[in-house]
Amino acid sequence: MARIGIQLMMLKEHVAQDGILPVLRRVKDTGFEVVEVSQIPMTEENVAGMEAARDELGIHFAAISAPEDSDELTLAKHFDLHVEHARRLGTKHLRIGMMPLSAMASQEAFDAFAAEADGYARRMADAGLRLSYHNHHVEFAKLGGVTLLDQLRQKAPHLRYEIDCHWVQRGGRDPERTLADFDGVLELVHLKDYRITLPPTEVLAAAAGGDRSAFTRFWGGEIVQFAEVGQGTLDWKPVIEQALASGAQHLLIEQDQTYGRDIFDSLTMSREHLVSLGFGALITG
User: Fold this and answer.
1) 3-class state of residue 162 by DSSP
2) How far apart are CA 17 and CA 50, in angstroms?
3) What is the pLDDT of residue 107?
4) What's this model's pTM, rounded to 2 decimal places?
5) Kindly report the CA angle at 270 between 268 and 274, in degrees rounded to 5?
């Protein structure tokens, strides 16, 4: 059965301050049992703490990150260690969170990244694991008239996918249709809402006084926010139903910013909305 959980990236500051096991205990108390690991240093101390959370708390690890390009552990330099971590934590899923910035420089650079990622996906498959690619909005840019995401599917046929609904929306595509398009290669989904917000009063006041620079910045980017599930514009029931129909194994709540709200309050809001839509059993198992 597919499960709904959370992206641990949202709690990285809590982990740095309190340690991984206390944070995962609080995650369990908030009503979640499934986590995806990203932007948490995979030190021996942290990995051992995650193992303890699995054994003592029943935490299930949906996936761990395996960066293609990073200042920390990478697929190129630490492939076997990623495999070891996946096996220790009992997950079959690893994910590339983003392509290297260098891959965006040209068609040749992107093709090289696609070939390299496909090689890692083949090696993971040989180890009994699955490597997925997580999209942002940049993958909907086109080279030669074809989006980078469509090119990646063609040029890296062994990759699986983690579709982020917010970034799909921000990239100008429809999340439900995109999830349908990835039927058969979809492993993971990020449940991240997309919110349009009104300008702050100080921005409006400055514009009324003749200074529109702050409004221009707001209009060009800050008008779009990350939101708790159910607090934005996405219609989640059909989106989640399509994700399940397309084969998603794990759906992870993620919110890059909370704009001053406590992250655990945000997680509770997202959880309550998903329960209200009838997906409570996917959270509790």
Assistant:
1) strand
2) 16
3) 98
4) 0.97
5) 115
Please report which helix (H) or strand (E) contains residue 118, including its range: helix 107-126
Q: What is the DSSP letter of 185?
A: T
Residue among 190, 179, 191 at smallest CA distance from 244: 179
What pLDDT score does 70 carry? 74
% the chain with pLDDT above 70: 100
**Is-contact 257 195, C-beta < 8 A?**
no
First-last CA distance in the chain: 8
Which of 118, 126, 192 lies closest to 160, judged by CA?
A: 118
147: β partners: 142
Take residue 75 and report the two structure tokens written for it: 């697929």
Pairing state between β 186-191 and 250-253 = parallel
Q: Quickly tell me which residue has 């001053």 as its tokens.
A: 260
194 DSSP 8-state letter: E
Report helix, strand or coil for 119: helix
**Would you tell me how many other CB atoms lie within 10 Å of the CB of residue 142?**
11
| List of domains in the chain | 3-192+229-284 (3.20.20.150), 195-227 (no CATH)
CB 128 within 8 A of CB 92: yes
> Which amino acid, one-letter code, is at 49?
G
Measuring CA to CA, which residue among 81, 106, 83, 79 is closest to residue 93?
A: 83
Q: Write the DSSP symbol of residue 147.
A: E
pLDDT digits (tens, 9 = 90+) for 196-230: 999 999 999 999 999 999 999 999 999 999 999 99
Between CA 208 and CA 52 the distance in angstroms is 57
CA-wise closest residue to 12 among 79, 65, 52: 65
